Amino acid sequence: MIVTVTANPSVDRTIGLPHALARGEVQRAVAVTAQPGGKGINVARVVHGAGLGTVAVLPAGAADPLLTQLAAVGLPHRAVSIDEPVRTNVTLAEPDGTTTKINEPGAELSAGDLARLTDLVAEAAADARWVALCGSLPPGVPADWYAEVTARLHAGGRRVAVDTSGPPLLAIAQARPDLLKPNAFELAELVGGDGARLEAAAAEGDLEPVRGAAADLAERTGGAVLTTLGAAGALLTTPEGTWFATAPAVRVRSTVGAGDSSLAGYLIARHRGAPPEERLRTAVAYGSAAAALPGTTPPLPAHLDPAGAHIRRLS
Fold first, then answer.
1. 39-49 and 258-271 helices cross at what angle (nearest 10)?
2. Active-site residue 305, yes or no?
3. 3-class SS at 287?
4. Which of 178, 206, 260, 305 is catalytic?
């Protein structure tokens, strides 16, 4: 069982444009989709599609359209009922794969809502191997909530993966999660430096800046660090060493959710007992497959090209 937690879920509305976005002009959509979203939900959908047990934990009212969507796709989930509607996030997708996201802040959680959500996470995780804490935190939730939940889950013997950014990311590093999944910009938030330079260096084949930064972070947390680098691939740093994987070549349709799929791929491979280099290969294969699909459509095993991810050990 892999449990995911999405404190700030969304309905993801993707609008396909016939050409590049032109600010200030009227444009007609060529395709519109609405899917259940939020990082943890995206992870759970990929895990579910791979045939593994999963439960997505989230806050949403009983009549919220998001729960209707989750039921429609058959995703097991448990929700804490709240009064406000779940937010809608809008993605504008251009033909060349460029995406522009407009995210609402989300429904505010009261102290009571948050306490019930925290208890539900612990309850759902009773039989889990891993719990993935994913995404932004909504209004009303303190930045150290992930750290608090991680400590509680660790006390119960659960392993914890975290994918977030900003203040919650800075707070969680002190809680020593078992896996962190930053991108280059989030890695720079944690260890200092310039995320754009880290990503550009990796794209040009210079992996040392990213390797060094990820190694510093792994030493601080004592866990693994999966650093996604967009089209350049990904880096996995564990106590056993560091590996780099190039990404399979794909026609990019939407990068939204690609990082979530990479995290899911890693957890799927980890659950199946794969060694570090194969966990990285699976993570990159899933992330690339997601980028080739529209909106936040979760990739299935049939979409993967594991052989297209080339692995090499860096240390």
1. 50
2. no
3. helix
4. 260
What's the chain's Rg over C-alpha atoms?
A: 18
Instruction: Give start and end residues of each alpha helix (H) in 4-52.
Output: 39-49
Strands 311-313 and 87-93: unpaired
* CA angle (130 as vertex; 128, 190 as ends), nearest 5: 155
The pLDDT confidence band at residue 315, using thresholds 50, 70 and 90, is confident
For residue 295, what are its two tokens?
């909106």
Q: What is the pLDDT of residue 96?
A: 87
Q: Give the full edge-to-edge strand order of the sheet including 87-93.
A: 31-37, 10-16, 87-93, 99-102
Q: Does domain 2-313 have CATH number 1.10.3720.10?
A: no
Strands (E) located in 73-213: 77-80, 87-93, 99-102, 130-134, 159-163, 179-180
Tokens matching residue 172? 């969680």
